[in-house]
Each structure stands twice: as structure tokens, then as C-alpha cells.
Amino acid sequence: MTSDQLLSGYDYTLPSELIAQNPVNPRDHSRLLIIDSLNTHKHGIFQDLTNWLLPGDLLVLNNTQVIPARLYGRKATGAPVEILLLEERINNCWLALVKPGKRFKIGSEVWFYPFNHPEQSESNILKAKVIDRDLATGGRLLQFQIPPHQSFLTLLEQFGQIPFPPYVTASEADPSQYQTVYAQELGSVAAPTAGLHFTEELLQKLQEMGVNLAYVTLHVGVGTFRPVEVEDITQHIMHQEWIELPQKTVDLIQETKAKGSRVIAVGTTATRTLEGAMKEIKAAGGDHLAAFRGKTDLFIYPGYQWQVIDGLITNFHLPKSSLLMLVSALIGRERLLALYAEAIKEKYRFYSFGDAMLILPSAVI
């Protein structure tokens, strides 16, 4: 077994002060580490994308929108509880991570109140019942009691809060700063953070210079941020996440490749959507990229044979994470860790509100 297959091979030490607590303002003034060949890289800012992308390039962006997935409530006994919604199963039944777990026994009822309205009355209570456990995540299945003709996602606007990641502990960011400017499809419990750096103005400039934009949807759930816990990473099983690859995006990808231009994914979630769709299509007997709606559990690590993307824009990821392994599959684990070491030395900002990397096709192994 090689170091590329060992969880310990993806560890690094990050000073806590480099964990970004707030996003840069304007968004596109974050720093950008440009990996432009197999052995060279440069430092810049995110606005510099206009210097590195070419007319005819295609940026593929994940247009998912973060839902107010964190709710605070109480048991009938008055005991306080907290939940983080992960994904809807069917008919307002949701898989959720719960705290404290011992208070979420099957059959127990939880009451939630609007987070910005302290008054508590029977008329503004959202109720849920614990109907099962989920062994894969350690979470619970909660059946919400929704009034007729009301949408659960609409109710979440009253009862839920946008969940910042657990390592963002001292943020002054507005919840809107944890959404991309092109977010459209409600369903994520975390942001596709590589896209947070784009402004409307930067997207407009890129289009004016001939860079094309296409959209996919991956609703970020537990699969993206669940830790890898086995030393032999080839034994890690990704939790499924819902993806959509529309025909319009397929057409743009095919046109881009036919011209010899480059398909650059914005973020690991856009990457997993494109490559995951190809995996599912091949599993069903197909041999070329096509529109797809469904779930994928694709886990990308070194040795993966790329099917769709040529390059990547991504943030700096947590040690031992599946996201770090995905980027390693593109440029190599040792080189990625060396770049991380330099980024730490240069005091780049890490994780969701942090800085970004641009990996150009000429740097891909």
C-alpha cells in the first residue's frame, strides 16, 4: 500500500489563526495560488482569473443554494436540542445530525420556534417526531408535521439558520456571504465554497472576454464533509449526494472539448457532479456524457482516471478530508502538500471563507 492510499498521508498542521473566520470583501479580492505547470506556481488575487483563463474556456459552477438547515428547539420536557438537517428523504422526513444524541430517542417529539421571534405560542411551533436512527451517519430521521399547503423550505426561512461550518467560531459574516452570487437551487446544508469568490462583475468580465459559464447542481450534504476514518482510504465509502447535470451543460462541455478548449470545474462539488454523472452513466451501460439526475457516491483519490474536467478552482481543505484527496488526484499528493506548506508560510487563509487555488490543465498529472 502506498502513502497515497493511507489516511496519514493527507495530514498537515495548520496554525489556528489561518482558519478564515470572515470572507474577504469584495469577494474577488481573496488570494489566489495559481498552479500553472507541472513544476511552477504563482501568487495572485482571485480577480486575476481574467489573466489566466482563455476565450473558449468553460467554467462549470454549482448553483446549489444553502438552506437554513440549523434549528434549535426543545423536547416536551423542556430540554434544549439542536439539529442540522442533512437531506430530505420523503414527504418532509429529513435525515439530521442531532445534539445531544441521547435526547433523540425514537418516538420522542421536538418543538422548534422561529429563531428571530422570542414569543412562543402553539401557533408558531414547528413539530417533528423522531422515527428512526441512521447508522451510517449517527443521525436521526425526523418526520416534520407541516400544515397543509405549506412548504417546509419556506418554513425553514422562519425557523432555521444558515449553518456556518464548525471551525468558523468567531465570524461576523452575514448569512448572505455564505451563498454564491449565482445560487439558485435550494437544498445544500453547506456552501460550494470555491464559488464564494466570484462577484457579478467578475463573472461579467469573464464572459465578455469569451469564457463560457455552465451550471450543475450538487446539494452538499454529509458526503462532502464527512471525515475519512479508515487508514486505508480505498475502504472509505462516500455518502450519496443528489446531483443534476442538465443537457445544456452537457452540450457546452461537448462544444468546448470539440474546439480543444478547457473545462474547468469551480469547486470539488462541481467536479464530483461531472465525474459522478459519468460514473453513473457508465454503470448503466452508457459510454458518453449525458444529462443526469440522481445520486452519486463517487470518491476520488490518487489513481483516479479523469473523465470530464481539465482544471479546477478550489479552496484549501481540511487535513485528511476526501476533498484533499480529490485535489491530490489532480496534481499529486506530495505536490499538493508542498503547496499547502508554502501557502501556510505565505499566510494564506484556509477553509470555507479562505483563499483559493487555480489548477490549470497544464499542471494536471
From TrEMBL:
InterPro entries: QueA (IPR003699), QueA_dom1 (IPR042118), QueA_dom2 (IPR042119), QueA_sf (IPR036100)
Catalytic activity: 7-aminomethyl-7-carbaguanosine(34) in tRNA + S-adenosyl-L-methionine = epoxyqueuosine(34) in tRNA + adenine + L-methionine + 2 H(+)
Keyword flag Aminoacyl-tRNA synthetase: no
Any single biological process term in GO: tRNA queuosine(34) biosynthetic process
Keyword Chaperone: no
Main location: cytoplasm
Pathway the protein contributes to: tRNA modification; tRNA-queuosine biosynthesis
Function: Transfers and isomerizes the ribose moiety from AdoMet to the 7-aminomethyl group of 7-deazaguanine (preQ1-tRNA) to give epoxyqueuosine (oQ-tRNA).
Keywords on record: Cytoplasm, Isomerase, Queuosine biosynthesis, S-adenosyl-L-methionine, Transferase
SUBUNIT field: Monomer.
Source organism: Aphanothece hegewaldii CCALA 016
Annotated NCBIfam families: PRK00147.1, queA
Record-given protein name: S-adenosylmethionine:tRNA ribosyltransferase-isomerase
GO molecular function (one): S-adenosylmethionine:tRNA ribosyltransferase-isomerase activity
Record family assignment: Belongs to the QueA family.
Tree of life domain: Bacteria
